[in-house]
Design goal:
Blueprint: H1 2-5, E1 8-15, H2 22-31, E2 44-53, E3 56-65, H3 72-79, E4 84-90, H4 94-98, H5 100-111, E5 116-121, H6 133-143, E6 146-149, H7 158-179, E7 201-206, E8 209-214
Parallel strand pairs: 1-3, 1-4, 4-5, 5-6
Antiparallel strand pairs: 2-3, 7-8
The chain binds guanosine-5'-triphosphate.
Guanosine-5'-triphosphate is lined by residues 18-24, 35-41, 66-68, 121-122, 124-125, 151-153.
């Protein structure tokens, strides 16, 4: 059955101006490390981490995109398919704060309205702040985004950011499952499948129409779990 074999994987893009701490945030979250060195990201980078949300296993695939405009053409291509987004600005960089609207627009243009959070990083440098707290809060309110003040350096609120996104994404899935009538096929198949393995996908021709039969891919599933928790698909 689908419910037992489906794996929840979320593609998350982390965006914001250069040097706000995007790579550091992903490294901290996935590897538990922080380095003081600044190595500008060229194009995109990728790390992943598996977490449990309400007892469900969720795989977060974190895409680290370059903050420099010169890489815009490359990075935009990687926004495609993103299911969640982290918008980051830095406590010590006013331009990065002012650029948030434009980052949001860039992501929205590619993937529409996906679960998104706003993060003010480097809160350990609050004494050097160039952004008033009311301004940051007003921005979050205007964009209707959950707002986190974080310090990757001090490991403050980093886990919470990604947990919140995973929560929001699962909530949306549940909502969609409730709203969308799940497509029942006559042979007890339903319309959401893991399509990653070609060996589990067969294609026939019937009455001149292509019929694609997709079956869940058991190889990728470590646990037999229903990602919708108490929410039944059938
Ligand atoms: N004090 C402080 N420094 C931080 C924090 N997070 C990151 N940094 C530093 O900020 C610099 C830039 O961090 P990166 O993670 O490389 O920034 P980025 O946003 O990925 O930059 P691009 O790759 O150019 O887009 C590095 O020197 C980090 O060590 C933080 O929470 N506090």
């Amino acid at each position: 059955m689908l419910e037992e074999d489906m794996e929840v994987a979320i593609k998350v893009v982390v965006v914001g101006n250069g040097a706000v701490g995007k790579s550091s945030m992903i490294q901290r979250y996935c590897k538990g490390i922080f380095t003081k060195d600044y190595k500008k990201t060229i194009g995109v980078d990728f790390l992943e981490r598996q977490i449990a949300v309400n007892d469900e296993e969720v795989r977060l695939m974190l895409w680290d995109t370059a903050g420099q405009e010169e890489f815009d053409a490359i990075t935009k291509a990687y926004y495609r398919g993103a299911q969640a987004c982290v918008l980051v600005f830095s406590t010590t960089d006013r331009e990065s704060f002012q650029a948030i609207d434009s980052w949001r627009e860039k992501v929205e243009a590619e993937v529409g309205d996906v679960p998104t959070v706003l993060v003010q990083n480097k809160i350990d440098l609050l004494e050097e702040t160039v952004i008033k707290s009311e301004e940051a809060e007003a921005l979050a309110k205007r964009l209707k985004l959950r707002f986190y003040r974080a310090s990757v350096k001090e490991d403050l609120n980093v886990n919470e950011v990604f947990k919140c996104l995973a929560d929001k994404y699962l909530q949306r899935l549940r909502q969609q499952a409730a709203e969308t009538e799940v497509v029942h096929m006559t042979s007890n198949k339903i319309g959401v499948f893991n399509t990653t393995s070609s060996t589990t996908c067969s294609q026939n021709s019937s009455n001149g129409k292509e019929v694609i039969t997709l079956r869940p891919n058991k190889q990728r599933t470590k646990k037999s779990k229903n990602p919708f928790g108490g929410c039944s698909l059938l």
